Amino acid sequence: MKKLLKGGTVVSGEGMKRADVLMDGEKIARIGRKLEADGDTQVVDVTGCFLFPGFIDAHTHFDLDVAGTTTADDFWTGSRAALKGGTTTVIDFACPNKGETLHHGLELWHQKADGRTFCDYGFHMTIDDWNESIRSELPDMFAQGVSSFKMYMTYPAMMIGDRDMYWALKELRRLGGICGVHCENAGVIDGMIAERKNGGKLGPSSHPVTRPPYLEAEAVSRLLRIAQAAECPIVIVHLTNHEALKEVEHARKRGQIVYVETCPQYLLLDESVYFNEDYSSAARYVCAPPIRKKAEQDHLWKALRRGDIQTVSTDHCSFTLAQKDMGREDFTKIPGGLPGVETRGELIYSYGVAKRRITAAQMCRCLCENPARLYGLYPRKGLLRRGSDADIVVYDPKASHVIRAEDCVANVDYNPYEGFVTAGSIRQVWLRGHLAVENGQVLDEAPQGKFMARGKNSL
Ligand code: DUC
Ligand code: ZN
pLDDT band for position 11 (50/70/90)? Predict the structure, then answer.
């Protein structure tokens, strides 16, 4: 049976227009004013609602081993939470250990995700080593639908030095791949951590002190020079501050192609969360890079508005409070990461669009169209158009609710945005033509997500 969403306003990267949307099977069949239903069509009244393309979260870590533990959310729970929050596609980071092949990493991530994922999904591939064997595996990654990669400038288990990063980027440029990079200066951070520990300052407040914004900016600057040498476009993931943005501006002025991602935690929270006297209240916010001073929020919102930041993803990497307790005696043992997939859409609408920091079209670009283009999913995903997948978020701007961990389905016992009031609510989520979520309830009892073999960047 076809479905006709009637009376809504369709949002795209260009703007908004009143239009009905007809879904036929998994695809959008027509979009237009006053579409008529035939006998075989279910009509759904969405009067007064905005219809966004299903959100894409290009930065999740489900079922990942970190710091001697495993993320609280696996593909089952994490993707259910994503779907509830309007995210119909996630791109997670496949992460082979140093010494393992990329093929092993890809197979492992398929084992974790296939048949266990409620929304559609793809993988980026982490490159944490560089040698002839890894180089020779790259073409097959593209053949298997993995067209984007990740490198780390920090974390000993995953980081890759400047020379290897340069060579890897040269090869990716040749193959037409895109790479996201975690930018923080590992060496100086290490030194600062040792100093803090020697001084007996072992609590969570040492986390932001030892990972200052200028050491992120330094790594961004170095990465951009390496990318310049390799003549390779580059993605900076989870950028947090204005000094790092300045480095991006310089690189763009000299002609480099640089894409930037930020995350809700950097737009909406500030570093005061780390200075709570209560260990658990502070430790729950530990993530890297850390949450910054309040003034940075405004820099990031303005950069989104100008189009200098292209995507907002979550870096969803969740741990329970019991897991966060691992660092009671030593802040470096707190597993880093926050939950976010379930709340990103409503938060960006409420604190971005409703507060007039960005427009609905800009939100659509950052959550839908740009990630779809950048990561080779466009035009199947990222826009509502005849022939695209019928992934639709029906957003009711008049509703409102308070974010509470107890209402969330992610496998975590806290929410970083506890008590935040939303402007509007997700009323429905359609995944490839079927109603998957309604009024906060995930209707799919079994996972329906499909692996998305992705093409090349078209942003
Ligand atoms: N940062 C985190 O806080 N967790 C996972 C990976 C990352 O980059
Ligand atoms: Zn991450």
Answer: very high
Count the neighbouring beta carbons within 10 Å of the beta carbon of residue 225.
16
**Cα of 5 to ligand 1 centre, how many Å?**
39
**92 C-alpha to center of ligand 2: Å?**
9
Q: Is 450 within the bounds of a domain?
A: no
Tell me, what's the pLDDT at 67?
87
Residues 344 and 387 in one domain: no
Instruction: Please write the tens of the pLDDT for every residue from 16-66.
Output: 999 999 999 999 999 999 999 988 999 999 999 999 999 999 999 999 999
Structural domain includes residue 459: no
C-alpha 290/C-alpha 137 separation (Å) is: 34
Same domain? 167 vs 201: yes
Q: pLDDT per residue over 94-120, tens digit each?
A: 999 999 999 999 999 999 999 999 999
Residue 287 falls within a domain, yes or no? yes
Question: From CA 108, how far away is CA 341, in angstroms rounded?
Answer: 22
Distance 29 CA to ligand 2 centre (A): 36
Same-domain status, 110 and 238: yes
Closest CA to ligand 1's atom 8: 288
Q: Which residues line ligand 1 (CB under 6 A)?
A: 61, 182, 287-288, 315, 317, 336-337
Burial category of 3 from C-beta neighbours within 10 Å (exposed 0-12, middle 13-18, buried 19 and up) = buried
Count of structural domains within the chain: 2
Using the predicted structure, report yes or no on whether residue 156 has a pLDDT greater than 90: no
State the residue range of the domain holding 356: 55-374
In this structure, what CATH number is given to the domain that contains residue 234? 3.20.20.140
If you measure from the C-alpha of residue 38 to the centroid of ligand 1, how many angstroms do you get, rounded to a whole number? 50
Say whether both 299 and 428 belong to one domain.
no
How do beta strands 50-53 and 178-182 pair? Answer: unpaired
Task: Please report the atom of ligand 1 found closest to the CA of residue 336.
Answer: 3
CATH of the domain at 436: 2.30.40.10
Q: 407 and 300: one domain?
A: no
Q: 414 and 334 in one domain?
A: no
Tell me the C-alpha to C-alpha distance, in Å, between residue 436 and each of 83, 87, 128, 440: 8, 11, 37, 10
Closest residue by Cα to atom 4, ligand 1, is: 337
Residue nearest ligand 1's atom 1 by CA: 288
pLDDT confidence bin for 242, thresholds 50/70/90: very high
End-to-end CA distance of the chain: 35
